[in-house]
Amino acid sequence: xxxxxxxxxxxxxxxxxxxxxxxxxxxxxxxxxxxxxxxxxxxxxxxxxxxxxxxxxxxxxxxxxxxxxxxxxxxxxxxxxxxxxxxxxxxxxxxxxxxxxxxxxxxxxxxxxxx
Length: 115
What we know:
Blueprint: H1 3-16, H2 29-43, H3 49-60, H4 62-72, H5 83-89, H6 98-113
């Protein structure tokens, strides 16, 4: 890495108040090539590869981001239910679906309006 490129990364990290961490990971070669192709298609260059990987990691950690945002707003999220808990505790529906009931009511109203 050249001096100017190193300075750019250092300066950008300091300026934005973030700390960049260089990591090494093992990824399936075909998967890695597909990601690089997608980044190249999207940006026209591979210079944004690290940013795209970071974006994918962030999007997979959305729950933590949401929790962090709520904490910054001083909103207590300790009592919030997970999607699994909501699905498990959802009441079982009885009777026909609402689409059928609404369709029936519209049909009756239309039949009453016709001579």
